[in-house]
Amino acid sequence: MRLTTLLPLVALLALSSRTFAGQFQEPSRLPRNVLETPEPPRADSSEEPGAIQPVAGQVPMNPVPNSSPFTAPSSFMGEQLPTPAVSLMVIGPAHAQKEKEVKYIVRASNRSAADAYEVFLICPAPKGTTGVSYKIEGKEEGKPLPPDGRIKIGTLKMGASKQVEVVLKPEPDATDIKFVSKVTFEHGVVVQTALSKPGLVVHKKASSKIIRGVPFACRLELQNTGKVTINDILVDDILDEGLVLDTKKAPSPKPVKEDLKTLSWKIDVLKPGQTRVIEYQLIASGDVANSKYQVSANGVSNVNNWSVKVTDAKLDVALSSDNQRAMINTATPYFVMVKNTGTAELKNVLVNCSLPGDVKATRTSSGSQMFPDSVQWVLPSLKPQEEKKLRLTVEASKEGSRAITFAVRANPGQDFQKTITTEFYGSPTLNWTSEGTTNCKVGDDITGTITVKNGGDGPAKRVTVKIDLPPEIEFQEEATPAHFKATANGITFDALDLPAGKEQKFTFKAKAKTSGEALFKIYLWADHLGQQEPLHRDMVTNINGGAAGLSPAKP
Asked: Domain locations in the chain?
C-alpha cells in the first residue's frame, strides 16, 4: 500500500519590507525579517512524557470520528500494526533577488511509532524557475534536481528526521516562487498464510460380539484433524447382505438417504478439531456382518471396511422330577437344567419358579432368592456350552394336581416357560377290624363284618378285601358292598377308594354245613401299600360248639 501525504507549503512571512542582499543563509542564521516555523515536538517532550505529539500536516493516528474499528474474523491470523506518519517542514526566504539562486530546506520527520519505507520527497521546480540541485543531509555533494523533483530519502525510522536542500533559479520574468513539497512513502502489512490439506478421519464403533437377530448399536465418529474448515461432508455406510437397519430406533441425525443397502448423511460444516457423531442400530442375520463406510468432502475421501463375526444365542431348558405323583406334606424335588447351546455368551440368566398357593419351597440349591409365592435364581453369565443344574424341593399341604411353572429368561432375546405337573396325594392310614359268628350249629347262619377305616390325611386308593371261605360253610351269595366276585373258595370285593377319615364295612353271610373249626382268611390290599404282601388276619367259627356268638379276628 502506498500512502501519499500532501503538505501545504509553510510560508515564511517577513516582518519588514527589507529584502535580502546576498545569498541564502542557513536556517539557524536567518535574518530577523524571516520567521522560522516551530520545530515539531519530539517523542520525549516534557509536556506529555512518552507521547508522540502530532505536528502540522501530519496524519493523526487517532481513529477517525464516527468510524467503526476493524475487527479481524476469528479464523484469520494477524495483528493491527501502527501506521507511519511523515510530516514536512519547509524553510525558505520570504524575499529573494531576481535571477539569483534560491535555497529551500525541506525537513521530513517521522514522529510515529512505525518505520516509513521508500520515502520520496517530491519537490518539482515551480513555474517560472529552473531546478538547479538538491543535497541530502549528510551527503557531501549535491545532485541535479530531477525534472519531476523526486528525491529518494529511503527508510525513515520512527522518530528520525532527514533534511534536504533544494536550489532553484528564477527566470528573468518571474515575479514570485510558489515552492510546493510533497512526501510519499510505502506502508504495508504482511500476512503469512500456511497452506495445508484438509484432514478428515472417520471411525466406526460397534460391539465386537454381535448376536444374530439382536439389534446392536453403531457409532460413526468424524473428526477434522486438519487446520481448515471442511464443508459439505458426505458420509455413507454401505451394508452387505445379511445386515439391515433397525427401524424401531431412528438414526441420529436423520439420514439424507436410507434404503436396504445404503445409509447416507450430510454434514454441512466441520471446523478444525471438531468431532461429529452419527448413531444408529443394525440387525445381522448372516454369519458375518460386513459393511463399507466412507466419507468424502473437499476432495478428501476416506474409505474403510468393517467386519464382525455373528454369534448365536441359544438356550436349552429341561425340567425333571422323581415321579409324577407325590404325597402331600412330603418333600418333592424338582430339577431345572439350563444350558447355553449357542455361540454367544448369555448374560443375566433369570430362572423363576411360580408356586401354587398351598405349595411351599422347603429347600433350594445355592444362589436362590425365596419369595412367598416363587423362587428365583440369577446367573450373571452363561458361557457357550456351559450348563447349570438347579434343585428345588417343595411340599404340598393339600391333595390334587399342581402345575409347577419355570420361566427362564436370558439376555439377549431368550425367553422360555415350561411346566411340570405333579399329582399330590395324602398319606392314607388304614385301620381294620373283623368280627363274626364264633359258635353255631350245623345249619345255622354265619355272618362276618370287616371294617376298614382310613385314619390318614389322604385317600386310600383301590382298597380291596378278599375272604377265603373254609369248607365247613356254604356262601349264601349275600354280601355288601354288592359288587363282589364269589367262588366256591372265597369272596373278592371290588376295589374302591376310601377317602381320608372314612370307613367302609364289608359283610357276608354263609350257612354252617359241617361241624368243625371254620377258619376264614381275610386279606386287605391298597395302592399305597405298594407291592408288599397284603394285610392278613383270620376269623374262626366253631360249628357244633357252644352257644352262638361273635369271634374276634386273629391277626
From this structure: 1-65+72-193, 200-311, 315-425, 430-552
3-state secondary structure 428-466: CCEEEEEEEEEEECCCCEEEEEEEEEECCCCCEEEEEEE
Cis peptide upstream of residue 170 (ω within 30 degrees of 0)? no
Architecture of the domain delimited by 430-552 = Sandwich (2.60)
- Lookup: cell for 414: 431368550
pLDDT one-digit tens code per residue, 48-84 = 333 333 333 333 344 444 444 445 555 555 567 788 9
Instruction: Report the pLDDT value the prediction gives residue 545, as an integer from 0 to 100.
Output: 57
Q: What number does CATH give the domain 200-311?
A: 2.60.40.10
Among the ranges given (151-155, 299-303, 420-424), the one the predictor scored with the smallest mean pLDDT: 299-303
Tell me which residue has cell 447416507. Answer: 264
Transcribe 358-427 into DSSP letters: TEEEEEE-TTEEEETTEEEEEEEEE-TT-EEEEEEEEEESS-EEEEEEEEEEEETTEEEEEEEEEEEE--
Q: Rounded CA gap, 199 and 227, in Å?
A: 8
Rg of the chain over Cα atoms, rounded to whole angstroms, equals 63
In whole angstroms, how far apart are CA 366 and each of 363, 376, 377?
A: 10, 11, 9
List the one residue out of 407, 409, 405, 435 whose CA is nearest residue 422.
Answer: 405
Which is nearest to 422 in space by CA: 497, 499, 496, 356?
356
The span from the CA of 214 to the CA of 115, in Å, is 74
CATH 2.60.40.10 fits domain 315-425: yes
Confirm if 549 and 439 have CB atoms less than 8 A apart: yes
- Is the pLDDT reported for residue 433 higher than 90? yes
Q: Which of 4, 9, 27 is closest to 181 using CA atoms?
A: 9
452: which residues sit within 8 A by CB, 6+ positions away?
A: 430, 431, 432, 463, 465, 498, 503, 504, 505, 506, 524
DSSP letter assigned to residue 57: T
| H helix runs in 198-286, sequence order | none
pLDDT in tens, 99-133: 899 999 999 999 999 999 999 999 999 999 999 99
Distance CA 467, CA 350 (A): 59
Nearest one of 551, 466, 483 to 512, comparing CA atoms: 551
Neighbours of 179 (CB within 10 A): 19
pLDDT digits (tens, 9 = 90+) for 494-518: 999 999 899 999 999 999 999 999 9
Choose the CATH number for 1-65+72-193 among 2.60.40.1640, 2.60.40.10, 2.120.10.30, 3.90.550.10: 2.60.40.10
Place of cell 425340567: 319
